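subagent[fold] <- orchestrator: predict structure for attached chain, return tokens only, no commentary.
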Amino acid sequence: MALELPRGTRDYGPKDSIRMQSIISRVETIFRRFGFYPIMTPAIEKAEVLSSKIYGSDANNEIFLLDGKDSGLRYDLTVPTARYFAMNKGTPTPFKRYMIAEAWRRDEPQFMRAREFIQADLDVIGSAEISAEAEVIAASALALESLGIVDYTIMLNNRMLLNAIMNKFGIPAEKQTHTMRILDKLAKISAEEIIKQLSDLGVGKDTAEQMLNFIKVEEGYEEKLTRVEANIDSAKAVVADMRELISLLEIYKIKGKISVDLSIIRGLDYYTGAIWEITAAAAGKKTLAIASGGRYDRLIEKYSNTKTPAVGSSIGITRVAEFLEAKSGTVTYADVYVSYLGKETMKYAMDVANLFRNSGINADLNMTQRNVGKQLEYANSLEIKYVCIIGPSEMQGGIVTLKNMYKGEESRMSPEEAASKIRSGT
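subagent[fold] -> orchestrator:
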């Protein structure tokens, strides 16, 4: 039998897993610093929770349904959070939560787009303030900075602004959601194809072209907001909100650029107000969205019949891990490898390894009868900095031989002295 993985999934070996866990740990540290706290929800949700009425018709074929189609794998982390909040009515608000977990989509696997992926989400539920939007955006941006991603752009838009633009160009209200789904493909297909799809929807070619030209003008965010404000009276309140959001983001001293991009749609139907994407380009890779989010003030109401404002942001952890340049590093967490010769020294070696561990040092213990050379090769293959060698003479003297694999230096000392040297890194 030829073993292979399901399409759109992958294994993570020790080195990649350590990198992934390091990314998650750094992101989680920033989320906690902002006062967000974790929740965990099942990977499986009821089918009615994962309804296409929540996500939009494009998700119909992308939800992994199970158990006779009455349940399915979660499509994102926002909807499970909304369901959780609706079921836990005594939760204090604002509810500031984060969740870092897998999600699944029956999407066509392609470059940096998998069927199984990890997201890191943070949300503020119960606040309609623009400061909540600024907080989740800034926390996402600073989490990316903690990973060394500093050359990024926060691209802002607003669903209400998009509705105002479509009203300006005469798009009927009943066609605006479908129009947004078509416009959301701007980064994937040509303007000509967008115009064709809009024409098929019943939007005139001239109207479609004028609307696209209005949306796609390249200019600074203040020029763009001023132009929109001057041309669409109904957009003035939204433009004021966007200006306030930008001014609040500047307080966080984030390193990325801020722009207003009227072509940002965010295809999920539950967004109601501010929306954004954070994009970046690594060496040799095209610019990609690595984080995104928006306000979804009517999603929780679908589950609880209670109006509840909410806003959230999501970092694509799997995409970020692939996006970052591979960095050198160990394939183990061990600080020291405890090597011993012969079964008669094994118990002493175990005592030494446990002394290290009780001192807060990660110690890997030999579990073979291989000679010293083979044991050193093994430690070297894992890029472990220190090897503690124990033979009969070390056992009899109550000492160890500590070898720095990076420098090629070794010396004999007590286990306690070895622990101190390992901790100091010398």
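orchestrator: received. Logging for downstream: Residues 14-33 form the longest helix (20 residues). The radius of gyration is 27 Å.
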